[in-house]
Automatic annotation (TrEMBL):
Keywords, alphabetical: Hydrolase, Signal
Organism expressing this protein natively: Sphingorhabdus arenilitoris
PANTHER family recorded: ABC TRANSMEMBRANE TYPE-1 DOMAIN-CONTAINING PROTEIN, TRANSMEMBRANE PROTEIN
Pfam families with a match to the protein in the record: DUF900
Signal peptide as annotated in the record: 1-26
InterPro entries: AB_hydrolase_fold, DUF900_hydrolase
Upper taxonomic lineage: Bacteria, Pseudomonadati, Pseudomonadota, Alphaproteobacteria, Sphingomonadales
Gene Ontology MF terms: hydrolase activity
This protein's name: Alpha/beta hydrolase
Length: 400
């Protein structure tokens, strides 16, 4: 998609944004929507969470005026702790088909007790998933369930659900809500990292969620008292919608510092040249996004072309003085195996990307048969599908 077309789409979004109703307050006071015991349980109620083995933390405003409980795109007055049912996640199920994921709130202390029991049963390891732009609680819950299945259901998956509107024309609202929610998320992440029963946290974020996760990990690294936050070990950014140059400038001195990498921390980025959503984001923000290898510098693109290489520009690596092999950063380019109209969710949609992602989740090096080295030692590409090859994306991505 060329820059002119993206610019036209961006202008259309801005003009149409005044027509959407997603940011209207509504006809019912928010305090009434979130009142009552269903939204604010004070004691554990086993019957309410029966069969709901998935964990969630949310800053979304709940609507508990009728059953079942619904989670809106508005901001809540506090974090709430929830459990939901791991319903099936078939490929044919649309994000907008109206099916709701059964969810119930749980008393905070009981929620932490149950998470502790599930984490201890998995030798202290858990997954934390933070969604991106244009997600409802239901759509991100389905992604969390899919991620759990790709992890082989070996331990608890916690979904952190911030108040995204779930609408294409609400990007600016989502961006605003994401920044508003940073204090909530970083406080939760700090509390989670300091739990004595947590030995290993795998953090996965998609799209705009990267801008919530990055400063929060930095915050935990600075403020963890009882631990050194080394239990945040495996960080995965899928299609990260954040400024690439800001990442290059700051991350090597913070999240991927020498001490953190030496203690075992690693970071994997899944990016694609075909990511239309991040192409639009670049047009809106002016500078390249981390999840799309766009060459902002035309002279760099010309140098790559002269060398017979694809015109794809990647973030700089972080090589620590005296230990050239110590980096912690791996970039996986899914451009040649992207699927779908946007190419924005290859890690959950493309067979090759899903196999690579599952290997990372399961603690492997991610060196699957489709991964190939590039001219940069920390960047790998996923080999294009052979002519006539018809991969079963749904099977590989656990979408059946």
């Amino acid at each position: 998609m060329n820059s002119l077309r993206l610019f036209c789409i961006a202008c259309a979004m801005l003009m149409l944004s005044g027509c959407i109703s997603g940011i209207d307050y509504g006809k019912v006071p928010h305090s009434i929507l979130s009142a009552g015991p269903a939204c604010n349980p004070e004691t554990n109620q086993p019957e309410a969470i029966a069969g709901k083995s998935m964990f969630a933390v949310t800053s979304r405003l709940p609507d508990c005026t009728s059953a079942p409980v619904k989670l809106t795109g508005f901001r809540a007055d506090k974090l709430r702790y929830a459990r939901y049912m791991p319903i099936h996640n078939p490929a044919a199920e649309s994000a907008k088909n109206g099916r709701n994921v059964p969810v119930s709130f749980q008393a905070e202390a009981a929620w932490w007790d149950d998470l502790a029991a599930a984490t201890k049963a998995n030798d202290g390891q858990l997954l934390l998933y933070v969604h991106g732009f244009r997600e409802t609680f239901d759509t991100s819950a389905r992604d969390s369930i899919q991620i759990m299945q790709m992890w082989n259901g070996s331990g608890p998956v916690v979904q952190y659900s911030w108040p995204s509107e779930g609408e294409f024309l609400s990007y600016a609202v989502d961006e605003t809500n994401m920044y508003w929610d940073e204090r909530n998320f970083r406080g939760f992440l700090l509390e989670l990292a300091e739990k004595p029963w947590v030995k290993d946290i795998v953090i996965i974020s998609h799209s705009l969620g990267a801008r919530l996760v990055i400063p929060s990990i930095e915050y935990v690294d600075r403020n963890a008292e009882t631990r050194e936050s080394n239990n945040i070990s495996n960080i995965i950014f899928a299609s990260p919608d954040t400024d690439r140059q800001e990442f290059e400038r700051d991350i090597g001195r913070s999240i991927l510092s020498h001490d953190k990498v030496k203690a075992g921390r690693r970071m994997t980025l899944y990016i694609s040249e075909n990511d239309g959503a991040l192409g639009l984001s670049r047009t809106l923000h002016g500078y390249p996004r981390l999840g799309r290898p766009y060459c902002f510098d035309p002279f760099e693109a010309a140098r790559l072309k002269a060398q017979g290489l694809p015109e794809r520009c990647y973030p700089k690596d972080f090589r620590h003085s005296g230990e050239m092999a110590l980096s912690g950063l791996n970039i996986v380019d899914t451009s040649d195996v992207s699927v779908g109209r946007s190419g924005h969710s290859d890690y959950l949609r493309s067979a090759a990307a899903c196999r690579d992602f599952a290997s990372i989740l399961q603690g492997g090096p991610g060196v699957t048969k489709n991964r190939e080295p590039t001219h940069l030692p920390y960047v790998f590409r996923l080999r294009p599908y052979a002519k006539g090859e018809k991969p079963d994306h749904d099977e590989a991505c656990k979408r059946r």
